[in-house]
Design brief:
The protein has helices at residues 51-57, 61-65, 70-81, 91-104, 116-123, 132-138, 149-166, 169-180, 191-195, 222-229, 237-245, 257-271, 323-337, 356-359, 373-384, 421-429, 437-444; strands at residues 6-13, 23-32, 35-42, 85-88, 113-115, 202-207, 213-219, 248-253, 286-294, 297-304, 316-320, 398-402, 405-410, 413-418, 451-452. With 460 residues, the chain is an alpha+beta fold. The structure holds zinc ion.
Length: 460
Amino acid sequence: MSFPALAFVDLETTGATATADRITEIGIVEVDENGVREWSCLVNPGTPISGFIERLTGISNAMVAAAPAFEDVAEEVKARLEGRLFIAHNARFDYGFLKNEFRRAGQDFRATVLCTVKLSRKLFPQHAKHNLDSLIERHDLTVSSRHRALGDARLIHQFWRRLQAEVAPELLAQTVKALTARPSLPAGLDPAAIDDLPEGPGVYLFYGENELPLYVGKSKELKKRVLAHFAADHAAAREMNLAQQVRRIECIATGGEIGALLREAALIKQLQPIHNRVLRRNEELCFWQLIELRAGEWRPALLPASDLGNGQQKHLYGPFKGAKEAKRTLTELAKEHRLCHSLLGLERVKPGKPCFAHQLQQCKGTCVGKEPVSFHSARLMAALGRHQLSPWPFAGPAWIREGEEVHLFDRWRHLGTAFSEADLHELLDVSPPTFDRDTYRILLKAIDLMVPLAANRPRA
Ligand SMILES: [Zn+2]
């Protein structure tokens, strides 16, 4: 079995976050047809190493004080890794840290990556744990210096050598191939567009040949979700068809999931991408409002969402996609509950005359005095009950904070998203948008996250 040139890599760092923390040590074991070469190097992180990290790795501030900065060893590291399969334990961590350090040094770094956690999980699914200590015990690996870069890189190399003995060659080759397979990107899409996608929550837009997006989607993990679109094993032809048309990807990172949902819904309404079929425009969105004509006599009236205003949202039922859907729903309810079509305004009948539905035994006869109007009103309210608009649970606007973003809402409407307290108060001065069904649904699931504005202003 032949594998390409390999580099077993391990890093020590000042912490766990690739964008904020820095590398303190690099260990590389190079393996190729010329044999095995080991290399390691302390790196001055340019930032203090905490006591906790110092105790874990044994790398102290004093040890790295005279060490070179990453940019001073960047060329050497690159030369050692270039053209090799990059193998690391929890490789996303090491690869992410190196990419960030190279970026800071003004260089671009890419490699084909093999993660030995994933490899172990695939080859030995019967075991629950695949951390380095578990592998040491399970495969009887010899420890030289645990938690130092070269020591851990050697352990990964040893694990790799054990696999040559413990696993059938074809199975190992197949598994490595599957784990290192690049997604089959459409011909016109630059692979770099994928590498640079944010990992966290947000919205992505797929573009084809022209300026109108083909598709807008959202995810808690943008990169993972976008990659899933290009996975080779699509069952759905429609999804495959979409993936093949993509030429350009745009991403908007958001502070969290609510922000992603709000952005997605707004962009779909605004841009109407041809591959988004679920959400519809809601320009004619409307409600049934029950109005008390006389004491105990409630009649439904159609209320367009744009007339909803800032008033109390009592006796509102909906939203319905349009007047047509509202009337159809009311007609169905009238049939089911034997309500009077005349009183509901579904039929024009002279006062005192029976409605057509009554002639068909489908109305209890409220129109001809067989049932008191107040009884009819009560039955109407009950019939509409399941369509009732949830009352806005606060006296005024409320907000949800996600990371740096603060989303402000009033009566189920998204007033906007702010990044500072000043921005937040500007949002209150702008006239609110029309009630929107998507925002309403998003918020119904997020009521627990909302904080009333007056009671507790978010610190910005
Ligand atoms: Zn009737």
